[in-house]
Amino acid sequence: MHPPPAPLSPTPSTSPSDNDDDNDVTLCTDCSPASTSTAAARTSPSSLDTLAQNENRYPEGLAWQFNVPKKVLRKSPEFKKFHSFLVFETEVGNVSRQEAVSMLPPLFLDVLPHHKVLDMCAAPGSKTAQLLEALHLADEPTTSSIPPGLLIANDSDYKRTHLLIHQSARLPSPALMVTNVDASIFPVLRLPAGQGSKMEPLLFDRILCDVPCSGDGTIRKNVGIWKYWNPMDGNGLHGLQLRILQRAMRMLHSDGRLVYSTCSLNPVENEAVIAEALRTIPGFELVDVSTSLPTLQRCPGMTAWVPTTDRNLMFHDTYEAYIASIPEAKRKEAKMGKSHWPPPAEEVKGLHLDRCMRIYPHLQDTGGFFVAVLQRKSAGKAASASPSSAVKRTADELPDVEESEAKKAKLEADVVASKDEPMDQDTPAETPTEATPAPEAAPKGDGNVKGKGKERQDGDSRFKENPYTYIPSDDVIVQSCVRQLSLKPTFPAANVLVRNPSGEPSRSLYLTNDLVHAVLDANDFKKMRLMTAGTKIFTKQDSGFGRANKNAAAAKEGEEKVEKEAVESQWRLLSEGLPVVLPYVEPASIIEAELASGALRTLVEGYYPLTSTFAEVFRVLVEVKSLGSHVVRFKTGTGDGASLTHDLVLPIWKSQHSVSLMIDKKAKSAMSLRVFGEDLTVAGREAAAKQKKPTASGVSAANTPAVASGASGAAIPAAASGASAVSTPAPVAVAGEAGA
Ligand SMILES: C[S@@+](CC[C@H](N)C(=O)[O-])C[C@H]1O[C@@H](n2cnc3c(N)ncnc32)[C@H](O)[C@@H]1O
């Protein structure tokens, strides 16, 4: 159990609207394509309120609130260092910003490492990141655990799933799968039932339905909503929200827990959805969570409401009155259904809608939010309950959704569908980096080339995704990686997969856990697009490094040795894979270094520092190593102008004459700022020099260096002082302004 956090009194913020004014329904920023790049703090006292100071606040003290307007943060010299810190850490993924109330739903889900979790509407992935952190409860500052559970993060918007992949890249996980399908028709996945070949449906222990909504709860920060909001927004979304929730309920395990949330305060998008779902799917109840997060100020859910029925703020007390107001010939086209209104009073009582939570902006100076926690009724209660209008289908039956039903659902959601599909052209697309396991290029044709006797997933040609192929644990490449890094026999080599048409290791090796392996083996993914599974751990070193090493080896050794050394030296451990692989690396094979040796500075300052330029104490350690991929650990302490609050573990590459740090440029700069207090990298020095250069007016280009010395150690959590993609990325959430 997490320690209960206190209210996350977040910063209200302002931002340009992300809403698409061409459509009837406006969506919240979280639901809108460019949401991750907006939002600015609006208010008041300049304070860095670290929630970390109080154990009772956010779990592990990993959330901070920063109440400073974006402009102030960017322009004030006092915030320069902090701003640099935020920019770098956000870019490398150690820090993510989100509205504080948005952080509530995952807390109410109470995820544990063994849980099977489904995040139905996950993009851009802020809550997915929180769920991942919970799944990775056993992680240490420098190593990542391999949780036995599973997180499937899904979104129906293909482009937004890339944002999701990018967000979750800060916590690379062998337990993560990202899928792309309409959540209201999420297909049944299967798993082997016990030892035999019998399959059973995969039911989830935890499901988050953070559904698309009108976003009227964010009206303080998204001022554009004032302009485009209209009363029919919520009415148009109600049907889709309901279908997503109903689908989730059918996929929930009997002991499971489900959280439904929106950033809307419209009862039609909230209590009306919950009420109808409870009425139509028997055996569920709202959980009374009034004692959880006790200091969170909230109001009970509404038990009565009257929806608006058109843009001109018409109201009808009942559905019947509404229908009666429509000319008979047009009744079939009525935009609203019975479920937009509350059920009859006597039925409402039994639903306990007051157990829903409404978080109003004035309660603790936050955005508005709605959260409801659902679970199956215990056996006794379920048997005695008989919802009058219940559809005669229980959650246990878990029917798959057929294509025709899917189409029908799509038609019903006409307004909504038209909102969710388009994506602004200028929305930042995912840039594949080391830390973003982008799938390898899709094959031409259907991509269904058979792997040679290997376990494989063919996928569906409709999706043009590369297949997921587990390679045998004795594969020559896998074994060469095992040898090169001196991995222990416990390394789960059977869970290494590749993603390319041939099913052979050609560019990248990914690692999943056993459960993801079982899910991939048991399902064909014909009804949904599987975007990623597991985390990338090794990649082929195709650059001059590999070739140079091969040539060097060829020059000095016989043919056979050349082949072996060339293979081993051509694959390298990725920085994002290091935390997962590290527990399996034989400790004796790790190069143990001290900050005082000056080696870290040398590695940071140059791209390919010559081995001869390192101080002897480090040089001798490297010289005995083979060419290729290695791991170096700098121990906690101080020295050479640097400070480490915990060990820093890094992947390096040994060439014939040089040793290089294998982390990407931004991660290197971020790490340098954290450890040395300044950006010592080539790029950082160049940027600083540029800033200092006098302009025509004789004034330096900026008041302060472009990359000011890093944020003070005090502002940086201990866990973050490892390099971003190198030690376990620090799960830091910043409510309010991230300033990126
Ligand atoms: C409120 S946002 C989710 C925010 C996300 N949970 C987070 O914390 O970053 C709603 C998401 O639902 C997605 N969506 C809309 N319709 C959907 C559907 N039918 N199935 C799955 N996702 C859908 C949108 O693309 C959007 O990303």
From TrEMBL:
<feature type="compositionally biased region" description="Low complexity">
    <location>
        <begin position="25"/>
        <end position="47"/>
    </location>
</feature>
<feature type="domain" description="SAM-dependent MTase RsmB/NOP-type">
    <location>
        <begin position="24"/>
        <end position="377"/>
    </location>
</feature>
<dbReference type="GO" id="GO:0030488">
    <property type="term" value="P:tRNA methylation"/>
</dbReference>
<feature type="binding site">
    <location>
        <position position="182"/>
    </location>
    <ligand>
        <name>S-adenosyl-L-methionine</name>
    </ligand>
</feature>
<keyword id="KW-0489">Methyltransferase</keyword>
<keyword id="KW-0539">Nucleus</keyword>
<comment type="similarity">
    <text>Belongs to the class I-like SAM-binding methyltransferase superfamily. RsmB/NOP family.</text>
</comment>
<keyword id="KW-0949">S-adenosyl-L-methionine</keyword>
<feature type="binding site">
    <location>
        <position position="210"/>
    </location>
    <ligand>
        <name>S-adenosyl-L-methionine</name>
    </ligand>
</feature>
<dbReference type="GO" id="GO:0005634">
    <property type="term" value="C:nucleus"/>
</dbReference>
<dbReference type="InterPro" id="IPR057286">
    <property type="entry name" value="PUA_NSUN2"/>
</dbReference>
<feature type="binding site">
    <location>
        <begin position="121"/>
        <end position="127"/>
    </location>
    <ligand>
        <name>S-adenosyl-L-methionine</name>
    </ligand>
</feature>
<dbReference type="InterPro" id="IPR057285">
    <property type="entry name" value="Pre-PUA_NSUN2"/>
</dbReference>
<dbReference type="GO" id="GO:0000049">
    <property type="term" value="F:tRNA binding"/>
</dbReference>
<dbReference type="Pfam" id="PF25378">
    <property type="entry name" value="PUA_NSUN2"/>
</dbReference>
<feature type="compositionally biased region" description="Low complexity">
    <location>
        <begin position="381"/>
        <end position="390"/>
    </location>
</feature>
<dbReference type="InterPro" id="IPR001678">
    <property type="entry name" value="MeTrfase_RsmB-F_NOP2_dom"/>
</dbReference>
<feature type="compositionally biased region" description="Pro residues">
    <location>
        <begin position="1"/>
        <end position="10"/>
    </location>
</feature>
<dbReference type="Pfam" id="PF01189">
    <property type="entry name" value="Methyltr_RsmB-F"/>
</dbReference>
<feature type="compositionally biased region" description="Basic and acidic residues">
    <location>
        <begin position="447"/>
        <end position="465"/>
    </location>
</feature>
<feature type="region of interest" description="Disordered">
    <location>
        <begin position="1"/>
        <end position="48"/>
    </location>
</feature>
<keyword id="KW-0808">Transferase</keyword>
<dbReference type="GO" id="GO:0005737">
    <property type="term" value="C:cytoplasm"/>
</dbReference>
<dbReference type="InterPro" id="IPR018314">
    <property type="entry name" value="RsmB/NOL1/NOP2-like_CS"/>
</dbReference>
<feature type="region of interest" description="Disordered">
    <location>
        <begin position="381"/>
        <end position="468"/>
    </location>
</feature>
<keyword id="KW-0819">tRNA processing</keyword>
<keyword id="KW-0694">RNA-binding</keyword>
<dbReference type="InterPro" id="IPR023267">
    <property type="entry name" value="RCMT"/>
</dbReference>
<feature type="compositionally biased region" description="Low complexity">
    <location>
        <begin position="428"/>
        <end position="442"/>
    </location>
</feature>
<feature type="active site" description="Nucleophile">
    <location>
        <position position="263"/>
    </location>
</feature>
<dbReference type="GO" id="GO:0016428">
    <property type="term" value="F:tRNA (cytidine-5-)-methyltransferase activity"/>
</dbReference>
<dbReference type="Pfam" id="PF25376">
    <property type="entry name" value="Pre-PUA_NSUN2"/>
</dbReference>
<keyword id="KW-0820">tRNA-binding</keyword>
<protein>
    <recommendedName>
        <fullName>SAM-dependent MTase RsmB/NOP-type domain-containing protein</fullName>
    </recommendedName>
</protein>
<feature type="compositionally biased region" description="Basic and acidic residues">
    <location>
        <begin position="404"/>
        <end position="422"/>
    </location>
</feature>
<dbReference type="InterPro" id="IPR049560">
    <property type="entry name" value="MeTrfase_RsmB-F_NOP2_cat"/>
</dbReference>
<dbReference type="InterPro" id="IPR023270">
    <property type="entry name" value="RCMT_NCL1"/>
</dbReference>
<dbReference type="InterPro" id="IPR029063">
    <property type="entry name" value="SAM-dependent_MTases_sf"/>
</dbReference>
<feature type="binding site">
    <location>
        <position position="155"/>
    </location>
    <ligand>
        <name>S-adenosyl-L-methionine</name>
    </ligand>
</feature>
